[in-house]
Structure formats: C-alpha cells, structure tokens
Write a structure and sequence with these properties.
20% helix, alpha+beta, globular, four-stranded antiparallel beta sheet, 7 helices
C-alpha cells in the first residue's frame, strides 16, 4: 500500500482492533482488576467518521459514553512479531474516540454475549487525520485529553498504560495479521463517561510538549 493510501487509512484500512481496560487509573476508577493480557475487541470500518461529521447515538441507547484513545496506524504487514521489532511496522498515529453504548455493553456482559452493538455501530469511531510516526517518538509519553461542552473530562498520559504500545502490537500480531492501513486503538484513560445528545466533544493529542492534533464532534 502506498504512503498516500496509508495516510488515508480510514478509506483503505481493513481492520479496527481495540484494546479495553488498558490504563491503570481507569481500572481503579471502575473497580476492575488489572487484566493479565490485553482485552481485545473489533469495530467495523463503517464506524469511522471524520471531523465535520456528527456522532449519532444508536437507536435504543440510553447510556452513551466517550473514551479518548491513541490510535496506531499500521504501515507494513506484521505477523507474530516480537516487541522489540514491532514498531518497525508502524506508519503513524491518530487521535481516536471509542464511543460506547454503555447500556448495550453492560447488558451484553451480563448475558455473556459479544459487545458488537455496543462498540461497532455507525459513527462509533471518530478519528483525526493521520499523524506521521516521527511526531510521537515515545508512545509512553503522549498526552490525551477530552472535554464535553468545555469541561475537562479526560486528561492523562499514555505512561499509565498497563500494556505499552509495543506489547499490544506484538500480542495482537500473534492472532491477527496486521495489514497496512489497519488501526489499533490502545485503550482509554480514566474519566470515560456519559455524553448526551446535543453536547459537543473536543479532544486533543500532544507529544513532546507539542499539540499534534485536536478535533470537535457534535453528538446527535
């Protein structure tokens, strides 16, 4: 895949692979144990939206949550790659939201069912433009923040990750072939919480003391 196509990962990528409960403070906040291995789920690529589009609460959802995350965009094919080699396969990054129909998810968990409707509905994965790899030389030292109607709700560093980015990618590559244009959402920090129709979400990503990107989405 060409560099141009990778930078347009929303159109050409085949997979959105997500990791849940990957921040220590979030696990503590929710009263959950630290997982022994990454908790993995998928979103369809039809859940992508870009700035200028709206987040739409799915039908029947009465408890809707925001989660801001660092997305890792794959540049070259990776299968069963060791941690110390896996970052060679990364092309860059994106600021992402993992929008969640929380009532759907809680009901699915209670019944031992998959989370597909809770996590994969249309507009469930708002993303920024592509950020080249060199802009984030240390994935354990990036800042993620999110505001709802101007009030700060999430503000954390990727240093709080339970499983750092190289570990996550290496682990996933044992089970999934990571392909150019795929994106991996690496988990949400503490502060994930409810958002309602007609509210506005602002979020941003910083590294090395520099603001790399930010975006705004309205919830409908």
């Amino acid at each position: 895949m060409s560099a141009e196509n990778i930078s347009n990962f929303r159109k050409f990528g085949k997979k959105i692979i997500c990791v849940g409960r990957n921040y220590k403070a979030l696990a503590a906040e929710q009263g959950n144990p630290i997982p022994e291995s990454p908790i993995v789920f998928l979103k369809p690529t039809t859940s992508y939206i870009e700035p200028g589009q709206d987040i739409v609460i799915p039908p029947g959802c009465n408890e809707f949550f925001h989660e801001v995350e660092l997305g890792v965009v794959i540049g070259t094919r990776a299968k069963d790659v060791a941690e110390n080699d896996v970052m060679k396969h990364v092309a860059g990054y994106a600021l992402c939201l993992d929008m969640t129909a929380m009532d759907f998810q809680l009901a699915a968990k209670a019944d031992g069912q998959p989370w597909a409707l809770a996590k994969g509905f249309d507009t469930a994965c708002p993303v920024s433009e592509f950020i080249p790899k060199e802009k984030i030389p240390d994935t354990s030292a990036a800042r993620l923040w999110l505001k709802v109607d101007g009030d700060m709700k999430q503000d954390s560093s990727t240093s709080d990750m339970i499983f750092p980015v190289p570990h996550v990618l290496s682990y996933l590559s044992r089970y999934f072939t990571l392909e150019p244009g795929d994106i991996v959402l690496t988990g949400s920090p503490a502060g994930a919480g409810p958002v309602s129709r007609d509210q506005v979400i602002d979020a941003g990503l910083e590294a090395g003391g520099q603001a790399l990107t930010s975006f705004t989405f309205s919830v409908k």
